[in-house]
Amino acid sequence: MSSAHSAHLGRVLCIITGASKGFGRTVAKEMSGLVKPGSVLVLAARSEDDLRSLQAELTELEAGRAGLRVESVVADMAQMEGIENVVRSSEEAFSEHIDHLILVNNAASLGDVSRSVKTFTDMAEVDSYLSLNVSSSMCLTARVLQSFPQRPGLRRTIVNVTSLCALQPFRSWVLYCTGKAAREMMFRVLAEEEPDLRVLNYSPGPLDTAMQMEARTRTGDDGIRKSFVDMFDQGQLLTCEASCAKLMKLLLEDNYTSGAHIDVYDV
Ligand SMILES: NC(=O)c1ccc[n+]([C@@H]2O[C@H](COP(=O)([O-])OP(=O)(O)OC[C@H]3O[C@@H](n4cnc5c(N)ncnc54)[C@H](OP(=O)(O)O)[C@@H]3O)[C@@H](O)[C@H]2O)c1
């Protein structure tokens, strides 16, 4: 990959789901330092206090003082109402000066990782998991693309935060692996259909977040659980900042193949 890249992402409208904590929160912070004045960040999650504290923090940073606008949307992304609220806030925040639309589909849940496939007999339980982890990112992406259609002078980038689990089966992780694989394929189809879009499936690696703690403590399969415990004990987890820096490098260089799965360790 070439080292030549732009120093900023443009005058951006950036929508980030799951921005209240973990990787999404870090993406919001890093993004704020790479956008031109007049840019807007639309931050979505369910935890209102965490979103408000992030909004206050970003507004006090240099970017905030230079005119970055930050909108918090308290929304459950598993509900159509939550998706509509995010789209409405984004439409209200948009202006003709925006030259780069970025959607970061980051919100996700681990689901029940304590059980094997043969225990999932309840269709409502499976549907509920897939609703947040697959359906919501498809419908949000579709709504955003409809609200901000292709036009001269507007770049559009769609990021899906994916995982090794989209490619590799993990025992007792059927919900998460299924969701990540389905979601990634969805964005690959999108990349095929819309050649003007830039679509990136970014796999951030093992991150030191709440989700990773859940993996260490709740995984049903002994071998898989031990591998997560070992990674933690041996200091192999990545910080959100280190992984996010790689994502920002990819976005700034902008020479990945649209629809590709790119792993943090390959950047
Ligand atoms: N951690 C890892 O090791 C790892 C590895 C590979 C990939 N990933 C992926 O990286 C992304 C971020 O993971 P993370 O580790 O940062 O997870 P995390 O710490 O659990 O954070 C998840 C985020 O998603 C939001 N969220 C969850 N359910 C939501 C809902 N119904 N509506 C709206 N927002 C919701 C949460 O906010 P609220 O609770 O406030 O709603 C939170 O901001 C995910 O896509 C994950 O699959 C993580």
Automatic annotation (TrEMBL):
EC number(s) recorded for this UniProt protein: 1.1.1.153
Localization per record: Cytoplasm
Listed Gene3D superfamilies: NAD(P)-binding Rossmann-like Domain
Major localisation: cytoplasm
SUPFAM superfamilies, sorted: NAD(P)-binding Rossmann-fold domains
GO CC list: cytoplasm
Top EC group: oxidoreductase
Entry keyword set: Coiled coil, Cytoplasm, NADP, Oxidoreductase
CDD domains the UniProt entry points to: SPR-like_SDR_c (cd05367)
GO molecular function terms listed in the Swiss-Prot or TrEMBL record: sepiapterin reductase (NADP+) activity
Coiled-coil regions, chain positions: 44-71
InterPro entries reported in the protein's UniProt record: Biopterin_syn/organic_redct, NAD(P)-bd_dom_sf, SDR_fam, Sepiapterin_red
One of the GO biological process terms: tetrahydrobiopterin biosynthetic process
Family the UniProt entry places it in: Belongs to the sepiapterin reductase family.
Subunit organization: Homodimer.
Name used for this protein in its record: Sepiapterin reductase
Taxonomic source organism: Acanthochromis polyacanthus
